[in-house]
Amino acid sequence: MMMLLRGPMCFCLSLIFVHGLLLVSAAAEDYSRADFPADFVFGAGSSAYQVEGAAFEDGRTPSIWDTFTHAGRSNGANGDIACDTYHKYKEDVQLMVNTGLEAYRFSISWSRLIPNGRGSVNPKGLQYYNNFINEIISHGMQPHVTLHHDDLPQALEDKYGGWRSRKIVKDFTAFADVCFKEFGDRILHWTTFNEANVFSLGGYDLGILPPGRCSFPSRTDCIWGNSSTEPYIVTHNILLAHSSAVKLYKEKYKTTQHGYLGFNIFIYWFIPYTNSTNDMMATQRAFDFYVGWFMNPLIFGDYPDTVKKNAGERIPKFTKYESIQVKGSCDFIGVNHYATLYVKDNPSSLESDSRDVSADMAIQVMSTDQRDDKPKDVFPVSPMGLYGTLEYLKRVYGNPPIYIHENGQQMQRNGTLNDTARVEYLQAYIGSLLDAIRNGSNAKGYFIWSFLDGLELLDGYNSGFGLYYVDLDDKERKRYPKLSAEWYSNFLKGRSTSQSQIIAVDQTISSLGSHFSH
Ligand SMILES: *[C@@H]1O[C@H](CO)[C@@H](O)[C@H](O)[C@H]1NC(C)=O
Ligand SMILES: *[C@@H]1O[C@H](CO)[C@@H](O)[C@H](O)[C@H]1NC(C)=O
Ligand SMILES: *[C@@H]1O[C@H](CO)[C@@H](O)[C@H](O)[C@H]1NC(C)=O
Ligand SMILES: *[C@@H]1O[C@H](CO)[C@@H](O)[C@H](O)[C@H]1NC(C)=O
Ligand SMILES: *[C@@H]1O[C@H](CO)[C@@H](O)[C@H](O)[C@H]1NC(C)=O
């Protein structure tokens, strides 16, 4: 019945996609750096809490992520020391240079720069980021900076509920102002918010990510919140804070600093589980909730109709002024893409009268991984998902400039440097990216997640995405290149990445690898 709520336009859209994508052949396999535009940028990334360490040093105070890990929520792991990049940043920048990275994506820890979330700037924090940025730039790489990467200062969470309150808009804008003023002479690419959709859903509906709030009676480990209302309120405040920071930049810094401001969302590629009309419409709904919930306000000035309809009174309304301010507030969109999911219609979830955002979607999602013989921690290689994502953004949102901010392969973190599954994944996805660019996608850059094996949100240190392994048992936190680092380096330096080459490199690394085998 719920399908009657859908407008016919969206329905046609999903049909176009399902059929359009069937035309695509396998991802480009034989390619090189030179096949990409010269101004396209390749890099790798991290975020502050996942690599910096020095969590209690030089005036930094806890963020909501520190609180989350210290409550035992990341497999008992925390970022107290992590990769110790805070002390080893020069060495890390040298590794970036050796790898051939053209750009590095990192985030600024708000509670290191402004320890109470508002008020005075911490000179030690300021010095660290100045040093780090200068080090990156002096080696000819571009710094791409994220302002909020899951690490709101705990002080603001305690003071007024953090992102649940409108008060956050003023404090976030003030934090952004400090960053623009202090670092903006050297930063051209700013992303206000990382994975806003996942932050909102994971942190306030499911309660599985910082700040870990939810209202499921069955859950004992989340902080009691309100899964029906808080994600919508938080999303609204995030969009207002983002647009407020952008407005400030345009008024105060743009003419002298000439930078670009973007917003990052996590995008699954969704495919209908069957060709039934209901599953195809459910697939469009999945895009509306995961992507449109943010992209529609940013591009068109309001939430998608489906989202408004299913959330009813629980979703805040934009005033005319807010709508104008949010609309068009991005110079680019940052995309984190890892995986493809099947979507099935699930109309019964709309029957409950205390619905959360997940129930409002009225979908059921399933892994597309049909393999029984592969380890569950390795993502299936579905490069078409990246192609589809870029085509979708092109056709639905007018082809905005896109940075793939995160893409990479998760593997068990067991000391092996022979990460062939990661090499296969990257080779396939970068090929698919090239296909999308050749068909007109406005993709401008690609960052592998992640440069180092850092603290992962859900998994702590049990699995990693890094091109470099970090030995956590070693006080020096020594870094070791994996096969993927060599592969990416060869690609970036215009060398062959063909199979024979990889085998040769593989052998070099295996001698290192033996160091770890137990
Ligand atoms: C390539 O782009 C055009 C224009 O957006 C679109 O009509 C076409 O379906 C795309 N081709 C594929 C294979 O996706
Ligand atoms: C969530 O907030 C709404 C609106 O204030 C309220 O009606 C509902 O009962 C709350 N739910 C929970 C689980 O507290
Ligand atoms: C959906 O239809 C296409 C052709 O239009 C077909 O190739 C595909 O196998 C169908 N999928 C399912 C799950 O039936
Ligand atoms: C390490 O994990 C990978 C999968 O992520 C697996 O293929 C490999 O066999 C493991 N190695 C050891 C030594 O356990
Ligand atoms: C690396 O792993 C691949 C597949 O997992 C295997 O075929 C290859 O022999 C391994 N190489 C070394 C040097 O261990």
Automatic annotation (TrEMBL):
What are the boundaries of the signal sequence?
Answer: 1-28
What keywords is this UniProt entry annotated with? Glycoprotein, Hydrolase, Signal
Supply the Pfam families for this chain.
Answer: Glyco_hydro_1 (PF00232)
One GO MF annotation is: hydrolase activity
Keyword presence, DNA damage: no
| InterPro entries the record matches | GH, GH_1_N_CS, Glyco_hydro_1
Annotated GO biological process: alkaloid biosynthetic process
List all membrane-crossing ranges.
none
Please report which protein family the annotation says this sequence is part of: Belongs to the glycosyl hydrolase 1 family.
What is this protein's record name? Beta-glucosidase 11-like
Q: Which organism is it from?
A: Cinchona calisaya
Q: Which taxonomic lineage is given here?
A: Eukaryota, Viridiplantae, Streptophyta, Embryophyta, Tracheophyta
